[in-house]
Amino acid sequence: VGPNFLPWLVSAALMLCGVFLVYEARSGGFRDLEDGGDEKPYWPGFVWMSAGLLLNAALITTIGFIFSCTLCFALASRGLRNAKGPVDNVAQSWLVDVVLGLLIAAPVYWMFTKFLAIGLPGLTQSGWI
Prior knowledge:
Strand content: under 5%
Distance between the termini: 23 Å
Number of helices: 4
Structural class: mainly alpha
Oligomer: single chain
Mean pLDDT: 84
Radius of gyration: 19 Å
Largest sheet: none
Helix content: 55-70%
Number of strands: 0
Shape: flat
């Protein structure tokens, strides 16, 4: 498995999804789904998620992959949590989001840099953060 394996795998999965969507559209679409009703979009959640993505892109070379992806996860989670309603313990939910973001981003960084030999920006030169 080399660095070209994952892009080909993702491309094949996206191609399969595209074929499925074209089939559904040609055969009448998703006709058994309920109508969404008069639900309005939750714009503050969109802002939180957009801020996470933009800050991730802006800071990835400065603070490294792990911390920028952790920030992206925490901000996106904040937007989704707020969409469900007010949060009781805000500090605890921030802490949970940051810890979960670290627990997801660190193994992903390690797998990409060590297993697939894809150079991702790190905070240090050691290759572990």
